[in-house]
Design a protein that fits this description.
This protein is mainly α. It folds into 2 domains: 54 residues, Winged helix-like DNA-binding domain superfamily/Winged helix DNA-binding domain (Arc Repressor Mutant, subunit A), CATH 1.10.10.10; 48 residues, Diphtheria Toxin Repressor, domain 2 (Orthogonal Bundle), CATH 1.10.60. It is 71% helix and 5% strand. It has 6 helices and 2 strands. The protein has a two-stranded antiparallel ribbon with strand order 1-2. Strand 1 and strand 2 form a beta hairpin. It is elongated and about 45 Å long. The N and C termini lie far apart (32 Å).
């Protein structure tokens, strides 16, 4: 979720810092600091001297995949009649557990729906 958050915030423009992640996610500074450290060590994120966070190529790949899942699953749930807020919350839960195979099937189905 941290990578996806950095991705979303960076799409809005400007520099993304840990405090922005804290505010967006509603997490404490120590929690975000720990996660940022793990993501840096894992090669998914870099931090400039001024505190600016940037996704590495590997981090961007993961973030884009999660963002696509979140967006598509939210749209699917809304299509099924779920209100937007609940759909977004549930999509966040589903996106982390759904298999690639099931997601691709949903994606294919939603693409057919979009053409109709």
């Amino acid at each position: 979720m941290y990578l996806e958050t950095v991705f979303v915030l960076s799409k809005k423009g400007g520099v993304v810092r840990s405090i922005d992640v804290c505010e967006y996610m509603g997490y404490s500074k120590p929690s975000v600091s720990r996660a940022v450290g793990l993501l840096k060590n894992g090669g998914y994120l870099t931090m400039a001297a001024d505190g600016a966070l940037e996704l590495t190529d590997a981090g961007r790949e993961v973030a884009e995949r999660m963002y696509e899942r979140h967006t598509l699953l939210t749209q699917c749930l809304i299509y099924l009649g779920v209100d937007e807020e609940t759909a977004a919350e549930d999509a966040c839960k589903i996106e982390h557990d759904i298999s690639d195979r099931s997601f691709e099937a949903i994606k294919k189905h939603m693409q057919k729906y979009a053409r109709s």
